[in-house]
Amino acid sequence: MRILHIDHHQYRKYGHLRVSWARKLYTGLIRAGYNVLAFSDRDVAKFEAPLGIRDLGRKKTNIRLMQTVDAFQPELIIFGHCDLIDNATFLEIRRRHPDIILAGCNNDPLFVPRNATNIQSRCAVADAMFVSTGIRDLAPFSGIRAKLWHMPNPVDPSEETADVSNLAGTDPTLQADLLFCSKSESHTERGKLVSRLKTALPGDFRFHTPGMFGQPTLWGRDYERKLATSKMGLNLNRQEGYQWYSSARIAQMAGNGLLILTHKAAEFDDFMPSETLAYFDGEDTLLDQLTEFHHDDAKRRHWAGRCRDFFHREINNTLYAQYIVEAATGARFSHDYVWAQ
Question: What are the pLDDT digits (tens) for 124-174?
C-alpha cells in the first residue's frame, strides 16, 4: 500500500530533534511494510516562501501537496498537525482521487479550545480521525463525517533504547530520583503541585525539573541522556481526568524503563497490567508512592521493568501504525490491540 504521511518531519532541525509521535508513526509505517512518502508542511512552506518567511508559503505548500498526490497516487493519506494544509485542499484531493482514504491524527489535548476546534474541522473532511483521548470523551465530534478512534502514545524501539529498570538505585549512572520535564504554562496549574513537591520531599531527594523554574528545556540527545539517567518519571498532564489521555512523555519514560507515576483519573488500568504504572489521585498519595518506591528499589525496578516490557511488546510504533492503517481502511485487525476496546 502507498501511504502519504503529512506532518512536521523536522527537516530544518538538522539533527536536534524533538521526540515526535509523528516521526514514530512514519518509522512504524515503514516497519509495518508500507510504501510511505513523507510530506513536511512546515518545511515545504519555509523552503517555498519568499525570503523564507513560512507564513508566506502557505498557498504554495497546498499546491505542492496536490502535485505530490497526483504524482505519488497514494491509496491512503495520513495527516497529523499540518495546520498549513487547508481543508479545501483535502476536498480537492477527494474530488480528483475519490478512492483515496483520508485519515487524520491528533495527539493534543481536548481542553485546549483551539485543538478541539481543529479536530472538529478535520472530522469534516477525514474518513477516520484518531485522537489520543479515549473514545468516551470524543462524543462532541461524532456524527460529522469521520469515524472516531483512540490512538495511544507508542514507543519506538530505536528511540527508547535505555533501560534504567536494570540499574540499582545506587548505580552512579542514575543522577535523578524523579524527573519531570515541562515548558508549557497554559491551561494548567501543575507548576504549583511541582513546587509543593519540591518543598515536601527530603533534601537529598533528587527531583529534576528541566524547563521549569528558569531551567533550560532539554531537546534531542540532551533529553535522551536525561531519561537514561533517571529512576522515576512524573507523568503530569496540564489537566487530568480525560479517558486514556496522556502527554507523549508517558511512552518516552516507559520505553526507557523509568518507574512512572500518573494520575488514576485517566483510567489506564483499563488496559495496562497490574504492577506497571503507579497511580495517584492527589498530592498525598503521590508523596506516599514516591516515598515507597524511593525506599524500595526492588519494587521500583520490578514495576518499571514490567511497564517497559509491556510498552515495547504491545504499544510499539509498528503495531500503532498497523492499527491506524487497518482501522482507517476498514480491514480486520491483525493483532489484538490492547487499547482497541
Answer: 999 999 999 999 999 999 999 999 999 999 999 999 999 999 999 999 999
- Domain total in the chain: 2
Q: What are the cell numbers at 154?
A: 507508542
Looking up residue 220, the CATH number of its domain turns out to be: 3.40.50.2000
Residues 56 and 131 in one domain: yes
Query: DSSP letter at 315?
Result: S
Q: Where are the alpha helices (DSSP H) in the chain?
A: 21-31, 41-48, 58-72, 87-96, 113-123, 190-200, 220-227, 249-255, 283-295, 297-314, 317-329
Q: What is the pLDDT of residues 266-296, one digit of tens each?
A: 999 999 999 999 999 999 999 999 999 999 9
At 182 the pLDDT is 85
Q: What is the DSSP secondary structure assignment for residue 57, as one 8-state letter?
A: G
Same structural domain for residues 210 and 297? yes
Q: Hey, how many other C-beta atoms are within 10 angstroms of the C-beta on 65?
A: 25
What's the whole-number mean pLDDT along residues 214-219?
Answer: 87
Structural domain span for residue 74: 2-154+316-329
Which CATH number do you get for residue 144?
A: 3.40.50.11010
- Domain identity same for 189 and 110: no
Q: Cell 524523579 maps to which residue?
A: 178
Half-sphere exposure of 338 (CA within 13 A, CB side): 17
